[in-house]
Write a structure and sequence with these properties.
Elements lengths: L1 E6 L1 H18 L10 E5 L3 E7 L24 E7 L7 E5 L6 E5 L1 H14 L25 E5 L12 E10 L2 E10 L4 E12 L17 E5 L6 H8 L4 E7 L3 E7 L4 E6 L3 E2 L3 H9 L4 E7 H6 L3 H4 L5 E9 L3 E8 L5 E8 L5 H4 L2
Antiparallel strand pairs: 1-5, 1-8, 2-3, 2-6, 3-4, 4-19, 6-10, 7-10, 8-9, 9-10, 11-15, 11-17, 12-13, 12-16, 13-14, 17-18, 18-19
Length: 357
């Protein structure tokens, strides 16, 4: 079994951008390998499967380095990215299982290693794909099993010094690890991280596939200038549950109610996403509508990417509603053929009376 890839600085930044919001779901960082995240690698794709709250401590407390978002339990997250000319500059993978490798990893430790690597590469650059200036998200956390050496204490920028980052699977101290090594062409910078992993059989990936759900009753595409996160944050303070009313007429309403107040937030002129089944439904009956009852904390946890990822990293996002079954948030990365992140949010059963405004 062998996996080795090369990344330029912009690939490291991209991977960091994708992993940050997913790691906020799982928690972890306390040294446990089985923190609810499984990674699948083959020559074409990198896939990430995570379960919300799986990395939290058994006693219910948050782990020391990065607890899960409150209310994230029960959320499933699945990401898929193209490997060659996508998340990697180049890569090579070999295994007896048709060149497929599957392993469990603590995503908080990987996030910390990526952030520390970006910080060590320098404070220059800019834009969505370059190195950010100043500390990165959680860059002050103690990345376990890492080492850093820099001759002359120089700050490096990707625009002035050729940087090579290698990600590979290797053994460290007799244990399998996902290793992240960064170096400069002139040998003045040397950064090493080793994150313990648990290698799984390739056929075990079937247990980490995204949930099977029915066809959505309503699918609405949002543009990035119409985020939901800020609204949900306010509504969460009023009620633990949010009713989401959607219509294929391009309308969505968020409503909360309690004994003292009733609030509704309206979104219109959204883009209905119509597939063959949706088109048949529209031809045979009235405009499809759907109402869901969602935990406000779960919905907010599934929207953390709206603050964690830079705007240039995302193309658009789609809200899919399946009556009394699931709410799905599908995030399309930029460029669109790079990949996606999909959140599966459980919902409460509601009667027909509650669905009617």
């Amino acid at each position: 079994m062998r996996f080795k890839s090369k990344l330029a600085t912009e690939h490291v930044q991209l991977m960091h951008n994708v992993i940050v919001p997913i790691s906020r779901l799982t928690g972890g960082g306390g040294g446990s390998i089985g923190s609810g995240t499984t990674i699948y690698l083959d020559p074409e794709n990198l896939r990430i499967s995570s379960r919300g709250g799986a990395g939290s401590r058994v006693d219910g407390g948050a782990s020391q380095l990065g607890g899960a978002e409150q209310g994230a339990e029960g959320i499933a997250c699945f990401a898929e990215l193209i490997a060659m000319n996508g998340i990697f500059l180049e890569h090579k993978i070999e295994s007896i299982a048709n060149n497929v490798i599957v392993f469990d990893v603590d995503l908080v430790q990987l996030r910390t290693a990526l952030a520390a690597t970006l910080q060590s590469l320098g404070g220059g650059g800019g834009g969505d794909g370059g190195i950010r200036s100043g500390p990165l998200h959680n860059s002050g956390e103690d990345a376990r099993n890492s080492s850093f050496s820099s001759r002359n204490n120089t700050s490096y920028s990707s625009s002035s010094t050729p940087i090579l980052v290698v990600m590979k699977l290797a053994k460290r101290g007799g244990l399998p690890c996902l290793c992240l090594d960064a170096s400069c062409a002139n040998g003045t910078l040397d950064v090493h991280h080793a994150i313990p992993v648990r290698i799984l059989r390739a056929e075990e990936w079937q247990h980490h596939l995204p949930p099977l759900v029915n066809a959505p009753d309503v699918q609405l595409e949002f543009q990035l200038d119409r985020p939901l996160k800020a609204v949900i944050e306010r509504l969460k303070c009023i009620s633990p549950h949010i009713y989401v009313d959607g219509s294929m007429a391009g309308e969505l309403v968020l409503r909360v109610e309690n004994d003292a107040v009733s609030i509704r937030t309206f979104y219109d002129k959204l883009i209905p996403r119509i597939d063959d089944q949706s088109e048949q439904m529209q031809q045979s009956q009235e405009t499809p509508r759907c109402t869901l009852k969602v935990d406000s904390k779960k919905l907010l946890a599934s929207l953390q990417w709206q603050s964690a990822m830079s705007r240039g990293s995302v193309s658009s996002y789609i809200v899919c509603m399946i009556e009394n079954e699931m709410m799905v948030v599908h995030v399309v990365l930029n460029p669109e053929d790079l990949g996606f992140i999909t959140y599966y949010i459980p919902v409460h059963y509601i009667s027909h009376d509650d669905m009617v405004d």
